[in-house]
Write a structure and sequence with these properties.
With 208 residues, the chain is of the alpha/beta class. It has two domains: 169 residues, Rossmann fold, CATH 3.40.50; 35 residues. The protein is 34% helix and 20% strand. The strands form two sheets. It has a five-stranded mixed β-sheet with strand order 2-3-4-1-5, with helices on both faces. It is globular, with a radius of gyration of 24 Å.
């Protein structure tokens, strides 16, 4: 007699509950439509958070798509690693999923062999630009961590295995380009004040 799934060890239990973590509503809508998911009216999350959950059953799988919702002031999607970390943790606590999928555009990986629609198994996770040039803190900043080993999934489904790097600066564009633009703007704003200060110093020098 086959034991019920609930009594099996986690490693042997069949996948039944899936949590799909996504950043933007527009990214999630095709999946919501595909799986005929409904907006969850009962919040499993803390009161006051803008997080949104869609759920439903598809081929005996209980699917949940969790989004960070909209910024209450600007009305844009709450994108970034902070929001992603919070809703992932909250989803694990509330849903106890057997599988977590982080889905989205993952732009910029074409040069590494990635294509639209690719699914990756994560082998390691690291931060891309959390640089702390102090011994030991530099290793902490990179934070490279080994992911759970999934050799059977990699073999049976023939998925690509990649190291995932997160950009904690949460910049859509290149960080250095943004810094350069910000510095240029700052210098333009400061130039009149610097010129006035220099003239004042020269005037005081002439008086002396």
């Amino acid at each position: 007699m086959t034991p019920p799934a609930e009594s099996l060890p986690t490693s042997k239990r069949p996948i039944s509950t899936i949590a799909i973590i996504m950043a933007m509503q527009t990214e999630a809508l095709p999946l919501i439509d595909k799986f005929h998911l409904s907006l969850a009216l009962d919040s499993l999350f803390p009161n006051g958070v803008p997080w949104v959950r869609y759920h439903g059953t598809y081929n005996d799988l209980y699917i949940n798509i969790v989004l960070p919702g909209k910024d209450v002031v600007l009305g844009v999607d709450n994108v970034g690693t902070v929001c992603a970390s919070l809703i992932t943790y909250a989803s694990i606590q509330a849903l106890q999923p057997d599988l977590i999928i982080n889905a989205g555009t993952a732009g910029g990986f074409k040069a590494k062999g990635a294509c639209i629609g690719d699914v990756f198994l994560v082998s390691e996770v690291a931060f891309h630009d959390r640089r702390i040039p102090i011994p030991l803190f530099d290793l902490y900043g990179v934070g490279q961590r080994q992911a759970f080993s999934t050799p059977n999934m990699s073999k049976d489904i023939k998925l690509k295995v990649y190291v995932v790097c997160y950009r904690p600066a949460n910049c859509l564009l290149e960080t250095l380009w943004i810094c350069a633009q910000w510095m240029n703007h700052l210098l333009l704003q400061m130039t009149p004040h610097l010129r006035t200060w220099r003239e004042q110093q020269l005037h005081m020098w002439r008086i002396c």
